[in-house]
């Protein structure tokens, strides 16, 4: 029993929920991800609509994919699989595509049916020798017509960190260390190298704007939890000293320090503007009372301006309003009002 407790993964990760949370926070990130999955060139400013699978009726609950994004008026059916167990994945994905088409892309009248299938894709986060590299649909109609379709498959373990970065696949790349399980001593070197490279590429993507700063923070947290789970599943095959040394030498980013620096910068800028405004108003009044009033008003306006600068800077970094409210201590409703006014 003690051994079981030792190797049990410390973090419960719902992969599809984490991926959807990552994508729904930023349309441009979703478009980049879709382009990387399908090799397409959808314009980055294209609108994204998430067709909610959570609200379907019990009748259709077993016939829907993990995600149904609609990008630039084209629908996609994306299915995330932890591994390739079972021999019915091609059939299941066909049902998901039919289900999605019926739920979201079907129009009909008395004598006509119009139905548009979504573009499907299957993502395997972990693979074995038997994991299929593609899924084939061979469909024969009652009049003798036959159609053969090939569904694209993404096998995360077959990608390198460089490929993940080049194709903007960080929404699934944050689970890349999962592909090393079961982690053993002879895999530690490659595991450490992959972790360091993954973090470095994520930081580059954040700095270039390909991944928003707050999303990069969430991804880095997921990478660390995935790493912890890999260490836990390794059991006694990998010593605690090894794992601790690996984690300590990786290039983690102190995002909290970045946010604090941004906040302090905004405060300093606002205070300086407040002082200048106070002196200017005081001089314009031309009397002692006017000076006092001007300085007081200037300081008050400076504080307000300082807060405005802080919020503007954070919004420019694509931070969610809830996180801005937490960092500044302002009510969420005030932050949202400012965001809408911009």
In short:
By secondary structure, the protein is an alpha/beta fold. The chain has helices at residues 2-7, 15-24, 27-38, 89-104, 161-166, 170-173, 188-208, 213-234, 240-249, 255-285, 288-316, 321-328, 332-341, and strands at 48-50, 69-71, 74-81, 106-108, 113-115, 119-124, 134-140, 146-155.
Q: What spatial form do the alpha-carbon principal axes imply? A: flat
Helices and strands, in order, run as HHHEEEHEEEEEHHHHHHHHH
Main-sheet strand order equals 1-2-3-6-8-7
Rounded to the nearest angstrom, the radius of gyration is: 26 Å
Tally of alpha and pi helices: 13
How confident is the prediction overall: mean pLDDT?
A: 82
The poorly predicted ranges are 1-6
Strand content: 5-15%
How many individual β-strands? 8
The separation of the N and C termini measures 57 Å
The helix content, as a percent range, equals: 40-55%
Helical/strand content category: alpha/beta
Main sheet summary: 6 strands, mixed
Supply the key terms:
alpha/beta; two-stranded antiparallel ribbon; disordered N terminus; 54% helix; 342 residues; 8 strands; flat; 6-stranded mixed beta sheet; 13% strand
Task: Give a structural overview.
Helix 7 runs antiparallel to helix 8 and helix 12 packs across helix 13 (332-341). Among the domains are: 47-158, no CATH class; 256-341, no CATH class. The longest helix has 31 residues, at 255-285. Residues 1-6 have low confidence and may be disordered. It has helices spanning 2-7, 15-24, 27-38, 89-104, 161-166, 170-173, 188-208, 213-234, 240-249, 255-285, 288-316, 321-328, 332-341; strands spanning 48-50, 69-71, 74-81, 106-108, 113-115, 119-124, 134-140, 146-155. The chain has a six-stranded mixed β-sheet with strand order 1-2-3-6-8-7, sandwiched between helices. It is α/β, with parallel strands linked by helices.
């Amino acid at each position: 029993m003690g051994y079981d407790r030792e190797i049990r993964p410390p973090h419960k990760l719902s992969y599809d929920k984490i991926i959807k949370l990552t994508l729904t926070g930023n349309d441009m990130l979703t478009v980049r991800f879709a382009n990387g999955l399908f090799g397409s060139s959808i314009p980055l400013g294209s609108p994204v609509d998430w067709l909610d699978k959570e609200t379907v009726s019990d009748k259709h609950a077993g016939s829907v994919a993990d995600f149904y994004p609609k990008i630039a008026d084209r629908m996609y059916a994306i299915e995330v699989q932890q591994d390739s167990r079972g021999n019915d994945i091609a059939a299941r994905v066909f049902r998901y595509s039919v289900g999605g088409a019926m739920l979201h892309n079907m129009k009909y009248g008395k004598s006509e049916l119009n139905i548009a299938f979504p573009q499907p894709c299957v993502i395997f986060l972990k693979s074995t020798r038997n994991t299929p590299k593609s899924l084939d649909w061979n469909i024969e109609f009652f009049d003798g017509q036959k159609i053969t379709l090939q569904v694209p498959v993404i096998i995360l373990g077959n990608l390198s960190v460089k490929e993940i970065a080049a194709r903007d696949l960080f929404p699934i790349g944050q689970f890349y260390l999962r592909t090393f399980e079961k982690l053993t001593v002879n895999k530690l070197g490659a595991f450490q190298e992959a972790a360091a490279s993954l973090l470095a590429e994520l930081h580059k993507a954040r700095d270039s704007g390909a991944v928003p700063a707050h999303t990069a923070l969430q991804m880095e947290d997921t990478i660390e939890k995935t790493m912890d789970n890999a260490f836990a599943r390794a059991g006694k095959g990998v010593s605690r000293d090894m794992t601790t040394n690996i984690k300590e030498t990786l290039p983690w980013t102190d995002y909290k320090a970045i946010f604090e620096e941004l906040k302090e910068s905004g405060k300093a800028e606002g205070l300086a503007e407040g002082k200048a405004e106070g002196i200017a108003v005081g001089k314009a009044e031309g009397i002692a009372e006017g000076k006092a009033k001007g300085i007081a008003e200037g300081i008050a306006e400076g504080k307000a301006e300082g807060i405005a600068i802080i919020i503007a800077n954070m919004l420019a970094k694509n931070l969610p309003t809830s996180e801005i409210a937490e960092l500044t201590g302002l009510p969420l409703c005030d932050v949202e009002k400012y965001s809408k006014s911009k």
